[in-house]
Amino acid sequence: MSAVLEYAKDNHDAFVSDLIALLRIPTVSTDPAYASDVARGAEWLADHMQGIGVDHVEVVRTEGHPIVYAEHLPHDDRPTVLIYGHYDVQPPDPVELWDSPPFEPTQKNNTLYARGACDDKGQMMMHVKAIESFLAVGEQPPVNLKFLIEGEEECGSPSLAPFIESHRDKLEADVVLISDTAMFAEDVPSITYGLRGLAYVEVELTGPNRDLHSGIYGGAVHNPANTLSRMIADLHDEDHRITVKGFYDNVIPLTEEERETFASLPFKPEEWLGEIGLSEAITEGDYSVKEAISARPTLDVNGLWSGYQGEGAKTVLPSKAGAKISCRLVPDQDPIEIAEKLKAHFETHVPDTMTLQFKNLHGGHPVLIDTSHPAMQAAADAIESVFGKEPYFTREGGSIPIVADFKRLLGLDSVLMGFGLNSDAIHSPNEHFGLDRYAKGIEASIRFQMEYNGA
Amino acid sequence: MSAVLEYAKDNHDAFVSDLIALLRIPTVSTDPAYASDVARGAEWLADHMQGIGVDHVEVVRTEGHPIVYAEHLPHDDRPTVLIYGHYDVQPPDPVELWDSPPFEPTQKNNTLYARGACDDKGQMMMHVKAIESFLAVGEQPPVNLKFLIEGEEECGSPSLAPFIESHRDKLEADVVLISDTAMFAEDVPSITYGLRGLAYVEVELTGPNRDLHSGIYGGAVHNPANTLSRMIADLHDEDHRITVKGFYDNVIPLTEEERETFASLPFKPEEWLGEIGLSEAITEGDYSVKEAISARPTLDVNGLWSGYQGEGAKTVLPSKAGAKISCRLVPDQDPIEIAEKLKAHFETHVPDTMTLQFKNLHGGHPVLIDTSHPAMQAAADAIESVFGKEPYFTREGGSIPIVADFKRLLGLDSVLMGFGLNSDAIHSPNEHFGLDRYAKGIEASIRFQMEYNGA
Questions:
Q1: Is B187 tagged catalytic?
Q2: Tens-digit pLDDT profile for residues A5-50
Q3: Hey, are the CB atoms on B324 and A308 less than 8 Å from each other?
Q4: Which of A252, B121, B344, B396 is deepest in the core (most CB within 10 A)?
Q5: Alpha carbon distance A417, B374 (integer Å)
Q6: Into which CATH architecture does domain B3-195+366-454 fall?
Q7: Which of B18, B37, B88, B291 is catalytic?
Q8: What percent of chain A has pLDDT over 70?
Q9: The pTM is what?
């Protein structure tokens, strides 16, 4: 074993103590009451990185919470890895459901319980401990490293894209490395190579100019709630395919190889369904559950409203009915184009008796990273060394907007080497992170740098 | 002209003054803050009726606001008319939109502005002034009269049905006379012979056991909001006929004669639509607007909810979606049966992926009164004498639950001889009542009693 890996192994307890020190700082980014704690978290992290010998560390002020940026660039002729992470955390509410205080990290059964233990302080710190391991034994890390650790991930990263846009040269790199996702399962390591995008719109139909008495007017007035229901119903056909014209135009079909991989994944639809109280899945056409939630586009109503929603009976014939509707997108669907197609669809179907208000609320691009990218292969090799088994390459159904931003603004692919588990209760009470995974993540970060340089 | 009619004519100003005195008392039944005013209103009315010589007057305590009950039964061998009305009023809010204070009755252009001017103090007092006119000139009214004037009409009449049920003998009569509806138009008198009933239900679908992240789960989880939309859409066919099995089974078809009457009514659909901001009506099959809103059953969504309804985008795949749905019913549809048919419809269509919660919230029977009933003919003759033209017999789209209750509990038909106008702003700021209609209503009540006795 190399001296670096040995150092990491021998200093496991100290590495845990360092993480605990950071977890004690309640860096809740959404709540202004915690602003000074968030700032303190950034300072702690910068001091810590400086303390372990990182060449250049700065705390960058933004309009929101600070960004910790660091560089360690010992090589002229080797690739540069931009490590992204975040030191801010979700609010701890509801606090009463925690078994131990969210900001008093507690160890139990080799697991660390605290807000941010997994998301993302624990996973982000793995890379800090990796560079520390090199420097502590008098070696340079085998690749150039840049760290971009933000404090606003849990509130939508408003300052990040502006920072990236105004620091393109500074952030120049060969690849982005992010540990902020989950592995497939405990001891089933995986690397995410695809993320879905998002097109999120709002529609509102207006019929009569005011709410009407359903007795006096009912029978001759087209009801916007009934009509909106019809319009929503017509968005899917009987095979649960989306009927919006041109919706699937730019969808890259799953390859046979991808479908075989999906089929081979240790994914049990029954368990997955059982956990959310269902016995049956509904997917588009003949796609499997895992394919449908990871690699196929969707259309879901996220919100619906009309008329009277209180207790009891009110005989109103409503003037308005509205819905929030969003589509998860896959490469190469474009969020703006899809929103426009949705708009055209609704405009075509709105009856003469009503007016339509359409808003494009939010969008994000889907992401697909070539698994043959040298950094992807390096990550796969690193993980195989650590876990003793090859990782699965998987696609995730959610969106990580920053990954699309790195591609769009810096032209960089991201390696999503996550060590979380879906059961880690991120965003929920009793968030935790297995300390075994923390150690494995540090080892994987070290080995990734070795492999990537070798590639 | 008879002495009675002459008295009514000569005392018009005094009759208006008496109405004003009652209108000054803010008998708002929904707001507990006005409880003592409501009680004062009942006392005023009872004192007033006693003062004009009505034989027996009582203020009946209930669990809510008092009922004023009176009897004047001079004849052994003549029919008895039970006059129903209410002395309570709607809240005056929004008070700032009134041009004159709602409880300081104000005369302008021979019109009286005050909360309750039309609904129902003005119309109810017409019958009090009618009996006064007989008694004042030393005559007995030509029929036996009972008065049932409640103080809870604007809050759902909770005490009325129990009172009727426990006083069936006392309330024995030949017909009920009610002035609490509108004429077709100014100088277009009408008598309402049909009212629609109501079946009001609530449905809620539950899919997954909690709100889910649409990125992680979207694509394989049946979305209750999408599904409820489909179920609602399927409640109507392309001709806007209701698809619920057996829905039309007990509908008495409109007769040719009725359809001819509907066609002859001075009803302008364009004006009716324009007033609510629409240019086009949608009706079931080939029914006209007036037929569809008066004499055909309907199904309307009254409320709709699911997921996230706030500002912006939240990517929730909702666990639940619900709707309030009601049907206006026509004879001989039964509200319980229709609710059961709706339940069966939803139960048949709910997919295996969801559970359905169904609540029957509220119901009311439709009403159809034989226009050849002697009291209906007496009312028509009375109105013809007063207005110089025959009234139209019309059906109204709304429900007056008490009319169905009188039929159900006492076996009595009701004559709906209303003198309001849809433009009287009942339930709105600046409620008013034309004093010319007040005088005509008093004359019509007097003539009705003469005609009915003669029949």
A1: no
A2: 999 999 999 999 999 999 999 999 999 999 999 999 999 999 999 9
A3: yes
A4: B121
A5: 88
A6: 3-Layer(aba) Sandwich (3.40)
A7: B88
A8: 99
A9: 0.86
